[in-house]
Amino acid sequence: EKVYLNGSIVPHQDAKISVFDRGFIFGDGIYEVMVQINGSFFYKEAHLNRLKDGLQKVNIKFDVDILPKEISKLLEASELTNKDCMLYIQITRGVAPRQHSYPADILPTVMMYAIPKVLPDINEIDAKVITRDDFRWSRCDIKMTSLLGNVMLNEEAMQYDCYETIMHRNGLYTEASHSNVFFVKDNVVYTHPADEYILNGITRIIVLDLCKSLNIEINESPISIDDLTTIDEAFLTGTITQIASIKQIDEHILYTGNKKGPITRKLQEALLKLK
Ligand code: PLP
User: Fold this and answer.
1) CA atoms of 65 and 130, how far apart (whole Å)
2) Closest residue CA from atom 9 of ligand 1
3) Does the keyword Kinase apply (predicted)?
4) 128 noted as active-site residue
5) Which of 64, 109, 165, 246 could make a disulfide contact with 153, Cβ separation 3.0–4.6 Å?
6) Distances from the Cα of 248 to the Cαs of 40, 54, 61, in angstroms?
7) What is the pLDDT of residues 34-61, one digit of tens each?
């Protein structure tokens, strides 16, 4: 496995980063994940633009526009050109003696790797999820590498043999530990607005666009935990998750077997057609 580190492509064993890297010390970095399907990265511009935005929000200075060329070199070295794969990009503020404030004039640490990845068949997923209080900070719009909150919440789902943990803040569903959440109620698709309490998923944006082209009404406002029993359908979205139908939320059963709802099914079919 090859790793891109600050302009060089090396075997992963030789990719070494200082213990004083602020990504290691503070989780002071931004990351991105995208997948190549049928020879091209799915919504590459949108992913790179979100990376650019994230870096700007935390004032890490790095020119994202150099990446497409570097990504091509990495894929070639990894023998993944045109192959189905997942690309991970991480940019941390860089190496400096430990101090909280941003050090002046340090170079960011840029790391990327690509591994073969065939996306799961979404038709086979009927997910059970648990719900937990969203105890993360209030800048979830930043795709930062400090993911301990998400990791802790996801681990609980694994303990309960569930697919994901959906979170709620002040009684309103926000998102899940590594995906966005949508609900369908009376033929209207609801999802939390793209404010500072959720990551604005690229798949979330694609699904909202698909709703528009399929004439499905959307309402970007949060669903309350008190309305759970009035929900007709629910699903998760994410780059790897794609659109995963939810069959059970805590004790509440939405459907049994593989009888997922018609709107979830319609959106899954439409998403697959884009690839
Ligand atoms: N929400 C969180 C917290 C995530 O970590 C992710 C993806 O990693 C998403 C939502 C979905 O984002 P995307 O569709 O861009 O993969």
Assistant:
1) 39
2) 179
3) no
4) no
5) 165
6) 34, 33, 43
7) 999 999 999 999 999 999 999 999 999 9
Q: Residue 263: which of 221, 231, 241, 239 has the closest Cα?
A: 231
Ligand 1, atom 3, residue with closest C-alpha: 178
Check if the beta carbon of residue 243 is closer than 8 Å to that of residue 122.
yes
Distance in angstroms (rounded) separating the CA atoms of residues 125 and 268: 11
Q: Which two tokens stand for residue 20?
A: 């004083």
Residue 123 has pLDDT above 90, yes or no: no
79: DSSP letter: T
At 243, give phi and psi (nearest 5°): -125, 110
**pLDDT at residue 232, as a whole number:** 98
Q: Which atom of ligand 1 is nearest to the CA of 150?
A: 3
Q: Which CATH superfamily is domain 122-274 in?
A: D-amino Acid Aminotransferase, subunit A, domain 2 (3.20.10.10)
The CATH code for residues 2-116 is: 3.30.470.10
Cβ atoms 44, 51 nearer than 8 A: no
Domain ranges of the chain: 2-116, 122-274
**Which DSSP helix (H) or strand (E) runs through 26?**
helix 22-26
Task: Choose which residue among 117, 151, 178 to substitute to test ligand 1 binding: the one with the highest number of ligand atoms within 8 A of its C-beta.
Answer: 178
Ligand 1 atom with least separation from CA of 240: 16
